[in-house]
Design goal:
Elements lengths: L1 H9 L2 E4 L3 H15 L2 E4 L20 H9 L7 E5 L8 H14 L3 E5 L16 H4 L4 E5 L4 H5 L4 E6 L3 H8 L4 E4 L6 H10 L3 E3 L10 H12 L5 H14 L2 H19 L6
Length: 268
């Protein structure tokens, strides 16, 4: 906090990975609060994968993933991923697994083998993979995340609400189910819920969560009639989050222009 304060006091401007179309009111409030110029650099969404998918001839696990996705209904699959920063406990992983099973929704779960698991088989509840084999896939290891998110069968994501993943997901118009844990994730989750782009999994007073709420929240977002507003808003958000020309040419262009005309070498 001390280092952060020193930087804010000394800087000429603050660059933020965001845009006025999504949170202009908060960027303006931040500018008024710190008394500095606040420059949105745009959301900088990663390039979307080519519509023509490259299939590996080496029997890559990703081939099986896309073969399975091709058989699912449009916008029906939930992508589940919590990245590498969140170290989920055994109880948390098992509750998520049981929640997915209870939801009866098709899913793809990108799960890194936790340190507490002696083997890949220990990373999930006994019998889970067998019981859900016709409904979902668990991928222990690297997956082609952007290609999966861009597949027509994927319609929603269950994740920690990290900002990078929010941008990756909303550029495809997927509905969001958020389960935040650390750093900026809880604040991101509140913003997304406030804007009716996400629904957050309910937690108990001790911050734990249960399988029933996982299942209930997933079904609300993906298939329930009352979740249609969320799905509609997510589709509309894709027009902003996926607009590469807006973020690259307009926002990033403005940021580069500012740097060229206002920042001297002495400033660094």
């Amino acid at each position: 906090m001390e280092r952060h304060t020193k930087i804010l006091l000394a800087c000429q401007a603050v660059a933020v990975r965001s845009c006025n179309e999504f949170e202009g009111e908060y960027l303006e409030a931040y500018k008024n609060k710190i008394g500095k110029l606040v420059i949105p650099t745009g959301l900088l969404p990663p390039e979307q994968p080519s519509a023509k998918r490259e299939i590996s001839s080496d029997g890559s696990p990703n081939n099986a993933i896309f073969d399975w996705l091709d058989k699912q209904k449009p916008k029906s699959v939930v992508f589940v991923g919590f990245g590498s920063e969140c170290k989920l406990s055994k109880e948390q992983v098992f509750e998520i697994a049981h929640g997915l099973e209870l939801s009866e929704l098709p899913f793809i779960w990108a799960l890194r083998k936790p340190k507490w698991a002696n083997s890949e088989a220990d990373a999930l509840p006994p019998g889970f993979v067998e019981r859900t084999s016709e409904k979902g896939l668990v991928c222990l290891g690297w997956v082609a995340q952007m290609e999966i998110l861009g597949h027509p069968s994927v319609g929603g994501s269950l994740f920690h609400s990290g900002w990078g993943f929010v941008i990756e997901t909303l550029q495809f118009g997927h509905v969001l189910v958020v389960l935040p844990f650390i750093i900026d994730q809880p604040l991101n989750a509140r913003l997304l819920v406030e804007k009716d782009l996400a629904v957050e999994v309910k937690r108990r007073e001790d911050e734990s969560f249960c399988k029933d709420d996982i299942a209930k929240t997933l079904r609300h977002a993906m298939v329930a009639e009352e979740g249609e507003k969320l799905r509609s808003n997510a589709r509309k958000a894709a027009k902003v989050f996926g607009d590469h020309k807006l973020h690259q040419d307009h926002y990033l262009g403005q940021f580069v222009h500012y740097l060229k005309n206002n920042v001297t070498r002495r400033s660094f």
